[in-house]
Amino acid sequence: MASGRALASTGCSSCRSAVLRLFATELAVPVASRPRFAPRLAPAQSIRLTAPVARPYSTTSSRADSQSRNPPSSSSQPTAADTSTDTGAGDADSVPWYLQVDPPRHVATLEPPPLPTVPEDAPPILSSILEYASEELGLDELSMLDLRELDPAPALGANLFMLFGTARSERHLNVSAGRFVRWLRAKHRVHADADGLLGPNERKTKLRRKARKAKLLQIMGTDETDDGIRTGWICVNLGTIGRSGPETANVSEDGRLTGFGTAQEGTSIVFQIMTESRRAEMNLEALWTSSLESFRAAQKTPELLDSHGQVMQQKPADGLQTPARPALGDGPGRKTISNRTASFSTTRSSGRASAHLEAAGDPMLAYEEPGQLAQMDVAELRRVLGLLHNFLKYGPARHVGAATSSHTVDGAREAFFTELFDVIVDRLSPAETWGCRLTFHAKSVKTNPRDPAHASVSQALLQEMQLHGIVATREQYTELLGAIWMAREAEEHPPKGVQPVGRTDLALSLLTTMQQRGQSILANDVVASLLQSTMSQESPSSSLIASLWDLAAQAGLPCMDEPSLMRLLTAASRTAEEDFAMMWDVWQTAPRYLQSRSPAMYLHMLRLAAQSKRSQHCAQVVRRCVLDMPNERPPVVLEGQLVTALRDCIKIADPMAEVIAAKLPPGAETPAAKREFVRMLVQLDAMQGKGY
């Protein structure tokens, strides 16, 4: 509409053609001059109409046309600069969009991820392996660990370099590992061992057999089972590169023959190729990195300070023990190790261990200060750790309880024990100190079961055993189970960021670990440990105790041994029950299985009754024990310590019985002589051939 009004406003055909040319040049359509539309003017004017039409990619100037069209005038003549500027702008605008040339666009090159830095003294094949794995195999997230510092060397080889790579899929994993092994054999003449790699046709054959079996059995979802086909992990072991010469004799500096062996001068290379999920699950980098950091931390010898705060001259770290330098000598550096520690034998004996520790008095004071442990080698530290472990097991109860108490330690002896224990735990590896730390924790729980921090310590010990693969004994399993169940539950409102851990969850996790390691969980020691821990609680659950007894009966377990029954009696005697029902339930366990009780069992029962200081309970224990002793097979004879324990119980049950029996004449029939415990004392004197 606008173009029509503009054309109508122009009077002559020349003006209309000029206006039409403005629109025609944008579409690059030259205005064809037809005879019927040509204006009746001179031929020069018609030539002027078609001359200014712009052509694609044309830079022709229109100065001549403008001069011929407009006569020279001083007022209307444009300058040369204005003409050239208008011409350039008109040429740029006259190019259509589909003929405009875009500026070149350079696609950014994709740079490959950087490869791990290879040490300068590494074998040249290591760089070639990393480049081939990144460019040819297409493995992602390549990393490398330099484990040459570890001493002793890992089982994979000495001077170990461990490489890690991630495959995109299970198929990519097998193809990459197969190509890598063939490339090593053809390029570097290295015959590598690939654990977990299936042959070219072996994988297809196994998958075909698996599909056929699933079709026959109509099993759905069998891909989720671990059938050994999809492992997600292939370990390529290149062996030792640059292996040393044959075996030779080793001679020390003083000329003595120390042995035979081969110097490990080569470099071992292992390539761990895994899928992304398997690599995240195994997390081998974190495992080997922690081992390397632990070794580096152990190599740092703490500085010894003298009394003036100056750094003392450290002893050279010589871990090799030769016959000329025994591990525990009497030299100047070890004069503090006196003969007082000789009574602490690491050999476990039944009765003498406790007696030796009782006689020693101060076992830890054989060392003047814990700082002297920095001068000891690993063998000496292990021996001191064994002494401390024996002290925790067989030491006096009052000293062990004070040393393992979580409250303020009273006395320099217990404080010294704690300091010495911490120093040794820091110097040795966690696997070596796990057993001693477990015993320390169990004694601490027994001393103060109300401490809410015991749950976190139990959880840490359990996770450490599971993650590090620590091989525990049956006694240690039950000891940890008892410590878990005896401790108080975690706080209902724990501190911020701390997740509460329940005793039930920890106990079930421990029992699951025992079952996975081939240990029987339906056994008397497990049931006894749970019963003892439950009875030792502040408010023992009678329903749980009854359930445990029913479990032992329904599982068909044999009768518990006497040490277990004695521990249960001790735990039951500390309850707040008035009738001691739990204690009598434990006492009747042996007769239920038609088993006889030994004199040690009766002695333990009488001593527990005397420790309770309750007259009614002591009277009941004396009556039942005196009646049951002759019925045992063989009968239990009242003699020695049994008579003393029986007299102690009678003294609590009837304090006047001993005085009355001492004043009675022989054969008296007075009412005082007919008292129950007076007659019992008279019979005891008659059996022993004594009289008052």
UniProtKB/TrEMBL annotation:
Example GO biological process: mitochondrial gene expression
Superkingdom to which the source organism belongs: Eukaryota
Compositional bias segments (type: Low complexity): 67-94
Start-end of Polar residues biased regions: 336-352
Localization per record: Mitochondrion inner membrane
Membrane topology per record: Peripheral membrane protein
Record GO cellular component, one term: mitochondrial inner membrane
Coiled coil: none
Main location: mitochondrion
Keywords of this entry: Membrane, Mitochondrion, Mitochondrion inner membrane, Transit peptide
Renumbered residue ranges of the record's region Disordered: 52-96, 316-353
Family listed: Belongs to the ATP25 family.
Entry function: Probable mitochondrial mRNA stabilization factor.
This protein's name: ATPase synthesis protein 25
Organism from which the protein derives: Microdochium bolleyi
